[in-house]
Each structure stands twice: as structure tokens, then as C-alpha cells.
Amino acid sequence: KDPKDFTIIGKRLPRVDNRDVVTGTAKFGMDVRIPGMLVAVVARPEAFGGSIASFDEAAARKVPGVRDVIKVSTGIAVLADHTWAALAGREALAVKQEAGPNASVDSDSIHKQLGEAFQPFGDAPEGKVVEAEYAVPYLSHAPMEPMNCTVSIADGKCTIYAPSQAPDAIQRGAAQRLSLDRSAVTVHTTLVGGGFGRRFQMDFANEAVEIAQAAGKPVQVVWSRDDDMKHDFYRPASRNRFRAVLGSDGKPILWQHQFMQAQAGRGTPNWGREEIPYQIPTAQRMTGGARTPIPTGAWRSVSHSNTGFAIESFVDELAYAAGADPLEYRKSLIADARLMATLERVAKLADWKGPKPAKGKGRGVGCFAGYGSYFSMIVDVTHDPDLGIVVNHVYAVVDCGIAINASGVEAQVIGGVNDGIATALKSAITIKGGAVEQSSYFDFEWLRMNEAPKFTIEILPSREAPGGMGEVAYPPAPAAVANAIFAATGHRLRTLPMNELPE
């Protein structure tokens, strides 16, 4: 079918559930209600690997509405008629904790381990040597809807209601725990109030199955915001170290990249270190890291969220080392026609070659190719003495093959870039005493509506197969902000978040 004859593909279509979402009638996991259901909350050790030394069960049972207190593998579950009673009962437990073997683990010690994992680069050819190292922190998924799951076990069957990204895994885990055939376990996937990779994990569902089995009644397990923030599977902290040698034309003849990330157990795949969107004669890459007790998992763009900032920042540094315009320098290294088209178009949209920004203002570039899509962006920032760094405008061009829903593509660009701005300037999970220090949005800050920039977005027409969009806009965004900060202030910031400029 000729694309000019499309009547749905490529058009701007609203989500069919928009009205339900904005009027509060959409059903998320938290909205599930089944007859005879109790609500459970769990008192968990805050430190990873910690334990609960003591708790006052009698005091919790005295709270009106509390029906049971059960010791489970993750902590102490308080079951009640409603959420408020369950939370009050948990508070009455007066839990005393033991930090356990990880009491000395903190963010500084983890980054020290990562730094010690780097290896010497070895000999280099003749040319101008440029070296840099970049660091990023742990990040929480921080979805608007905290983890929750509702489970009913009766008559040899199990019914689960879960806002999950992996319902098949939940079904498999429940069947194994309950010694049931998988056909006896039904999983209803509700609307998800934010996933971002967090809900690929099964911990919250496994916990609900365990509690419902012990209680002998239908149970809805509810996590508070604090629970959700302190017991996530975090985007790993990581460090990236680079060395490049520039030839007589200013282009790299050698590119060396070591990527070290903190992992617990199987951790997060090292996706994101394999590809760079530039043609370099010799590119060497090495991955490794450090084992830590902090749980890690998939986060938006997986390991590209670590490496995108580092790669695009370092390319910017190479451009300045070569005395070249950062955008033109990237063009000199790009071999892929589709990525080149996005960069050339965004340069025109942003009038890159126009008048230079005024003092205290700067522009930064970022590129990314992956998941079958190609993306380039330019950001305008202002260094305000009172407000700090303000991102004013984002120009973005994407080639994602045939764009099925243009509104959806634009939404993913806006969401991914806004996430990138938040993590560039604000957000970090820090560890102290083997536990997460943050507990909610007041200390794990995200971008507020009044802080969001203006967007100019263009989708390039294409007949290529549709590519992904959920992961594409995030990786270059923190780097584009960092590059713009350098252009505005002369300060090259290599550690996220960039919430303080040097004096």
C-alpha cells in the first residue's frame, strides 16, 4: 500500500483510554477490589541484606481494622480491612532493624570500586590524546503508581491482578510456589501507572502470593511511596572512562572506552556499550564493574542510559579539542545516512548556524542510533544566577521508520527527553549504611511541569520498517544538556546530576 493512501498509519491518534485516565475511571492495580479482600503492607529491612531484629505484634493487632500479622520472607506483613489500618498497624509494630553485612556500603565506596575496576589503556599511536571519565548514580524508576498486587487462592486455583510488564513470569512464579499447573493460575494485567522496566521484576507479585497463601484469604499488597523508592531494582551506578587519539585532521584514529557498572547478581545487561553512532578506524571497548548488594534492573534505555551521556559528552570534548564546531564535527564522523539526515534537519530547525547565543546561554547537541531508530537533538539552556541551569527549548528530529502514530512518537520524545533533563540536573539515588537515602519525590526530584522546556519535534518521512521509540530519546539528552552547559559557562561537568556549578 502506498503511504499516501494510509488512513490510520502515521496520523495523530489519541489513546482510546484518555478519557478514562483523566476522569479517574481507568482501573489500575490499586483500583482492584474483590470480595473478602484484606489489604496488606509489609515492614521490610531498609538495608539490603538487613533483617528485622524485633517487632511488637501485640501493638499492631490492637489497631482498629487490623486482622492479622504474618512473618514472611520479605519482612512482617500487617493485614487489615483497609489501607489506612494496615499502614497504622505497620507503624505500631515499632520495628527494630539490623543493618547486616552491608552496613558499610555507601555511594562513595561503590564508585571507588568502579574506579578500581578500570584497566590501563596501554600504548597509543602518535597524535593528540584526549582523556575523560564520567560518572552516573543509581536511579529509581519512581512510577506514579507504587508496586501492588492482588491475589486470590481458592479451590486449587490462583487469580492475580497485577500492573506488570511480565505477566507470564508472574504466572510461572505463582504456579511454582503453589505447586499448581500454570493453567490453574490466571493473571489479569491491569493498567500500569508507570513501568519503565521496574515491572519486569516479580518481587511484588511473589510477595503477594506468599501473603495470600499464608493468610488463606484474598489479599491486596500495597507498597507506599517510601517502600517503592527504597526497594527498587535500580538503574546501576556506573563510570565510563575514555581515551582518544586525534589525527592531523582532528578526527579520532583511536577510541578506547571502558564501561564499569555496579551490579547485584545477574544485574543489567551491558547493552549500550557496543554501538557508537560514529565511524572511527579503531574502536576498543571493555566492560566490567563491581558486585554490590544494591538490586539493579532494566531502566529506560537499559545501559544506554549510562553510556549515552558519556559517549555524547566525550564526542563533544573531542570536537573542542580539535577546534571544531560540535555539530559539524559529528557530521564528519557519521557514516549512516539516516542519522545524518536527522542531524542536518535538527540543525536547520534550531538555526544552529544563526546568531551565537548571548552570554550565559548555550546550545548542546546529542545523537543516538538504536532500536531501529535514529535521533538527533539540540537544547538551549540559560545559566540563571538564581535558578541555576534552565533548559529553555529542545529541538528534536527522529527517523523511526514508518511512524505508526505520530502523536505517540512525539509523546515518547517528550517523555524521554524530560527524563533526561531530570537526571541531568536533579535526580540521584544515594546509598548510606547499605540502604537508600531517598524516600519520595521531595528528595528524589523529577522534572516539574513548570520546568519542562518548549519542544519542536519533527518526524522524518520513511518507508523503512518501524523502529522503537520508548528508549531512543533518553540516551543523548543528559549529554546535550551537559554540552549546552559547557557552551554557556565554560564548565565541563562529567558527573550526574549536574546540580552545582564550580565556583
Commentary on this structure:
It is a single chain. With 503 residues, this protein is of the alpha+beta class. The longest helix has 20 residues, at 406-425. The protein starts with 17 loop residues before the first helix and ends in a 14-residue tail after the last helix. The protein is globular, with a radius of gyration of 25 Å. It has a seven-stranded mixed β-sheet with strand order 3-4-1-10-7-8-9, with helices on both faces. The chain folds into two domains: 1-31 and 147-222, 2-Layer Sandwich (Aldehyde Oxidoreductase, domain 4), CATH 3.30.365; 238-489, Aldehyde Oxidoreductase, domain 4 (2-Layer Sandwich), CATH 3.30.365.10. It has twelve helices and 19 strands.
